[in-house]
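Bumping with the actual sequence this time:
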Amino acid sequence: ICPFEASGAKTIKLLKHGTLKTYPGLPHGMPTTHAEQINADLLAFFKG
C-alpha cells in the first residue's frame, strides 16, 4: 500500500507479479477507515 502519486506507477513496474489497484476518493487512512474493503482485496491478491 503506497501513495499512488509518490510511487504507485513506478512500483508496479518493479514487481513481476504486481497488481495496481486504486481507491479514488478514499482517505490516506483507508486501511483503517475502509478495512473490510482493503483486507478483502489484499486477501484475494494473496490467494491468487
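The C-alpha cells above came from a reply further down the thread. The mean pLDDT is 87.
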